[in-house]
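Appendix B. Chain record.
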Amino acid sequence: MNAEPAQGDAARADRADHLARLVEEFRALPADNDRKREIIAELDDNAAAGPFLVSVVADAGEYDLARTEAATVLRLWPPTDPDLRHRAGRALLAALNDPEEDLVRQYAAMALGPYASDDPAVTEALTAAGGDEEDPLVQACARAALEEAGLA
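Structure tokens predicted for this chain:
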């Protein structure tokens, strides 16, 4: 006798298939295609998308608007898995330290608030980014993240 999969299992499988299709579409698009940002936005409530979002933020060659969208999702829904959370914080930290992309740096700084209390390197980087020598928008975002983390 074959047991039918529980409805929850079917829903999880559908979400996994949907995630796989979106990731495949994302990877096939040209570098600066705005659909990439839209795909990230579609994944904002999918916890299984965490590793993909981390990879987007970590890729300095990726479309900047996709990276900012991924940073936003990682800020709003930080991973609960400790290893993935650490990798997300480190990817955002690398984006914050990218001197070529001020917009990405701003979003990375904002997104680091939930990670600051987990990792002293994040707190140190946000403190440095909040310094007077920084781009004013990066500075404001870093200070806001420190406040959000209760460290300012």
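Further analysis of this model is presented in Appendix C.
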